[in-house]
Amino acid sequence: MQTIITLPAACDFHIHTRQGVLMEMVAPRIAEGGVSLCYVMVEPNLKPPITSTEQALEYKAQLERLAPNVTFLMSLYLCPELTPEEIRKAKKHGIVGVKSYPRGVTTNSESGIESYAIYYPVFKAMEEVGLILNLHGELPSDSDQQLHNDFPKLKIVLEHATTKAAVDTVKALGDTIGCTITIHHLQLTVDDWAGQCHNFCKPVAKFPHDRQALRDVVLEGHPRFFLGTDSAPHPAYLKECAHSCAGVFTTPLAIPYLATILDSFGAINCLRKFACENGKKFYGVNEEEGKYREITLVKETLLVPHSYSFDESVEERRGSIVPFFAGKNLTWKIIN
Ligand code: NCD
Ligand code: ZN
After folding, report:
1. Core-most of 133, 217, 296, 310, by most CB within 10 Å?
2. Protein residue with least CA distance to atom 2, ligand 1
3. Does residue 331 fall inside a structural domain?
4. What is the pTM of this model?
């Protein structure tokens, strides 16, 4: 018997879309992967890093030209140049949040403790206008906990949880704390990346009991946990060299991968909440006018390509990306 599911196109609350020819390959594949809304991570990988509203809107416009049917929500990068005025301006122009990387946290020279102290005026403005703070943490640190205590109304998302400890911590916190989980962390454990550079990402996949905690929270349908793929493409040769770049590329087949993996542990019925509903509710966002659509999935074999080319003018390993599960079969595909 053929199994068919129709559901809203999904939301990816953590995606890396890159620049130049790589962006030109990636952006049109977001919709192909079954996603209609995504939250774009800006970061030191982008040159220059996106720290102003103008830069974020210019980047959004570039993405929209390549993928007119996708809603792109934009973020800014937390850095000392960011001001409370810029936060208010960002909010007015539809920017959704601010991403903090570990290096955004300054070290207090006397105590040696990492502190967000210099950003408190920025966080206060974010709390007032309702911008989200995205934390790139393995586990909420002491300074993250302090931040939450000091700004109880500031919505915070712990990005790409990989451990049972992180899941337990987020669950124990209140309604203002959300958490993204990637597709690949629902599948991989330490053994999968130890000998396979293409599965190497940051944060790295952990132990079977950690993966089980991620799967359990999806099965539970917990409303504050939602999809953020952290899809992060790097050219094949940079993944295959001695100091492999971190990142797994899932954008082109995001929802077929996710449906396949969820189905493998009895969670296909959790796809809708995890990938289509929870994140939108937490963020309080929706597709832009005319960009909402539905997707239909069928339970049929789908072969994942060995690579996606983004630059024909250079040698093949330099101009292509190896996707997650390359050369393997998925059990679900999108038919519309
Ligand atoms: C990210 C990327 O390549 O943009 N890679 C990843 O494995 N998540 C960068 C990073 O967060 O290290
Ligand atoms: Zn990321």
Report:
1. 133
2. 232
3. no
4. 0.96
Rounded Cα distance, 95 and 285, in Å: 11
Query: Counting atoms of ligand 1 from 1, which one is nearest the CA of 136?
Result: 11
% residues pLDDT > 90 (the chain) = 85
Going from the first residue of the chain to its last (336 residues), give the mean pLDDT of each consecutive group of 10, the final group possibly shorter: 89 97 98 98 80 95 98 93 96 96 52 71 98 86 86 97 96 95 98 93 96 98 98 97 94 98 98 98 98 98 98 97 98 97
- Output the CA 110–ligand 2 centroid distance in Å: 31
For residues 123 and 112, the answer to whether their CB atoms sit within 8 Å is no
Q: How far is CA 288 from CA 56, 62, 90, 213, 274, in A?
A: 17, 16, 17, 34, 20
Secondary structure class of 107 (helix, strand, coil): strand
Domain containing residue 265: 10-292
Say if CB 248 and CB 321 are below 8 A apart: no
When divided into structural domains, the chain yields a total of 1
Q: Which residue's alpha carbon is at the smallest distance from atom 4 of ligand 1? A: 232
Q: Which of 13, 39, 45 to mutate to test the pocket of ligand 1 (most atoms within 8 A of CB)?
A: 45
The one-letter amino acid code at 206 reads K
For residue 33, count CB atoms less than 10 angstroms from its CB and return exposed for 0-12, middle for 13-18, buried for 19 or more: buried
Distance CA(89)–CA(22), nearest Å, equals 30
**Is 160 a domain residue?**
yes
Task: Among 17, 188, 202, 321, name the best residue to mutate to test ligand 1's pocket (greatest count of ligand atoms within 8 A of Cβ).
Answer: 202
Q: How far is the CA of 264 from the centre of ligand 1 (A)?
A: 26
- In this predicted model, what pLDDT tens digit does every residue of 187-228 receive, in sequence order? 999 999 988 999 999 999 999 999 999 999 999 999 999 999
Q: Which residues line ligand 1 (CB under 6 A)?
A: 16, 45, 201-202, 230, 232, 246-247
